[in-house]
Specification:
Length: 306
């Protein structure tokens, strides 16, 4: 595994983390504690120290609760826990951006994660209107001073949201989470240059384009999970045709495509780490190996590789 400083924080994150939206049950599989334990145990064995979760991955902080149960039997200090705020999911899912709502979510996240601090607390893809709330950021700063939050971050909803990115430093946020993968390079235009200029850490999310960049799906595929069922079939088929073309023209014959796709993201000088969502210990292990790839993607050849 390789490690990098996450922007201006003092966190040294593994370049491959574990995304845990999957633990909430939206990806066609309900998890139990033993399965989550197996995934996180393997993650630790392969040197991963970063877990990305959220207040609303599953009802009642479900993903965080699985992680918290695991952490209560492991060494909390070995992990960097990134979670998020802005939604409430008890019986039904809703946006919840008021100061009081977010304060309550923070306490519920701490309780679910069975910890007394969060390493990276991220604004969860809210609108610019939700973002422009001085009272919210003041309350969050107080929580940083109180030690409940170590660092603030912003998970931007659209990967071209330069408005929230440019204000990160002013809001005392030190990392941006953004969709970035071989099929969607939009952040390269404005978001990444701003991150480099402000020395912000970058967590590349959806780095496998929801699994499409593993190369295992073909046009016409029918998904059974909620997340991928939401996508329009014509758009899915078009993306999968592009994946096939990329496989033939860019991916070395002996490479495993999912690893290659993660390695591709990691070559951009703005990207600190990738956080692929994982459903099994085998996927964790395969994804971790991307840290050792030394690929120079076709369109990054003139970029400075760090
Ligand atoms: N707004 C936000 O802040 C936001 C939004 C989205 C995601 N996220 C975070 O980012 C993380 C990653 O995004 P994502 O999970 O949506 O998409 P992703 O990482 O691009 O894709 C994850 C899916 O790829 C497949 N996969 C993973 N490793 C694989 C491997 N080695 N070989 C083959 N298939 C593999 C798995 O599904 P199958 O095996 O079923 O194909 C897995 O569910 C999330 O878990 C979450 O933590 C944050």
């Amino acid at each position: 595994m390789k490690y990098r400083r996450l922007g201006k924080t003092d966190l040294n994150v593994s370049v491959v983390g574990v995304g845990t939206w999957q633990f909430g049950g939206d990806w066609g599989k309900d998890f139990n504690q033993a399965e989550v334990d197996a995934i996180l145990t393997r993650a630790k064995e392969v040197g991963i120290n970063l877990i990305d979760t959220a207040e609303c991955y599953g009802p009642d902080h479900l993903s965080e609760s699985f992680i918290g149960d695991f952490l209560s039997r492991d060494n909390r200090e070995d992990w960097i826990i990134a979670t998020k705020f802005g939604h409430h999911w008890h019986k039904k899912w809703s946006h919840a951006w008021s100061v009081d709502d977010v304060r309550q979510q923070l306490d519920e996240s701490l309780r679910s994660l069975q910890t007394d601090y969060i390493d990276l607390y991220q604004f969860h893809s809210g609108s610019d209107e939700d973002f422009d709330n001085d009272a919210l950021w003041t309350m969050l700063d107080k929580q940083v001073q109180a030690g409940k939050i170590r660092n603030l971050g912003i998970s931007i909803g659209s990967n071209q949201n330069i408005y929230q990115t440019e204000q990160a430093t002013e809001r005392n946020a030190k990392a941006i989470q953004v969709v970035y993968n071989r099929l969607d390079k939009a952040p390269e235009e404005a978001v990444f240059p701003s991150c480099i200029e402000q020395d912000l850490g970058v967590l590349a999310r959806v780095p496998l384009a929801s699994g499409f960049l593993s190369g295992k799906y073909k046009p016409g595929v029918q998904f059974s999970d909620k997340v991928r069922q939401r996508k329009e079939q014509a758009a899915v088929d078009e993306q999968l045709r592009r994946v096939e073309q990329i496989k033939q023209t860019e991916v070395p014959e002996d490479a495993e495509m999912a690893q290659w796709a993660l390695g591709w993201c990691l070559q951009h000088p703005a990207v600190t780490c990738v956080i692929p969502g994982c459903k099994s210990p085998e996927q964790v292990e395969a994804n971790a190996a991307a840290a050792d790839l030394d690929i120079v993607p076709v369109d990054h050849r003139s970029a400075v590789v760090r």
